[in-house]
Amino acid sequence: xxxxxxxxxxxxxxxxxxxxxxxxxxxxxxxLAGCEDKNTFVAPPPPKVDVATPIQRPVTRYVxxxxxxxxxxxxxxxxxxxxxxxxxxxxxxxxxxxxxxLFTIEPETYKLKLEQAQxxxxxxxxxxxxxxxxxxxxxxxxxxxxxxxxxxxxxxSTRDNAQASLQQAQANTRLxxxxxxxxxxxxxxxxxxxxxxxSIGELVGVSSPTQLATIVALDPIWVNFTVNEQDVLxxxxxxxxxxLTVADLKQLPVQVGLQTETGYPHEGQLDxxxxxxxxxxxxxxxxGVVPNDKRVLLPGYFVRVxxxxxxxxxxxxxxxxxxxxxxxGRYLLVVNNDNTVEQRKVEIGQVDNGxxxxxxGLKPDDRVVIAGLLQVIPGQKIDPQAxxxxxxxxxxx
Length: 397
Hints:
By secondary structure, the protein is an alpha+beta fold. The chain has helices at residues 9-12, 15-39, 107-143, 149-182, 229-242, 246-249, and strands spanning 48-52, 55-79, 83-88, 95-96, 101-105, 184-186, 191-193, 203-204, 210-228, 253-258, 266-273, 283-290, 302-318, 324-326, 329-335, 341-345, 347-352, 355-360, 367-369, 383-386.
């Protein structure tokens, strides 16, 4: 086949022909070299990621809850007798001891009634004494047949009526003494008395008992909280394993902390556990009693509560920052023997001194990714950098 525009043999073999062929060969080599560079891919090195084995140490397991404080005793002081308030014998909001007089309600009238009842009692005693003497004399006369049996029966009836009159007089005296005692309102126990609700000279106790003030006991103090059904089952299972009774559970300590306090500086004991769960909330009502001699805890506070119920001697702990979460729950990224990242589903427990307890899904020799979670994905090879988990400083108890 004949091609158009072909150079003549002389031209192809001339000096210019040699130069052209050389340039064409060089261009072809450059083109081939360029294509080879574009098709070659050099993989980046595996990322360096910090990994560490979990800390293994004894951990006390707690049931944690939010509760509120309540006074173990709170009483409304009322006027139980009618009269004008004569005096207020305390300062509002002060601490008083049991038996301290707080109010006085016009005692003179009730004192006179008491004296009147005492006088009537003395008269009844004299009447009974005379009736008994007459009865004895009539008994002797009947034995000598000096008087009739009817006379003795009359003397017997007189004596019995005198005895009844004396008993009535004695009851009236006790009642008058009680009413006279009610004119002085005293503290039924140690506590703080609220501001008075009536004024001196005011008529109280007219148609019903009039509230004068309220006294509240603050030492010790109750802490009420609830435990969810899952924790109840865990505690009952642990109690059964250890052979503990309900009485033994009441000896468990209750640790309490205010919202502004670090740790749980207040400690008491369990005082009450409800016999049934609340079906609407699925929780169990629990109460602890905590000493409060410095009156740091006031009724109505919201407090943090925890109750130790078990101890794990070989718990596994990791930083909270090593945990991830998805729709399936919480997980850790673990590096296997081939330095490949695996996603491990785990069940988490409480935070203990800044580290998270791993209940299941983790082994003591697992290498956990503790930093750079966003740089790695499951199935990726990495360059693990062995390090140690730093133990945070223990929080105040």
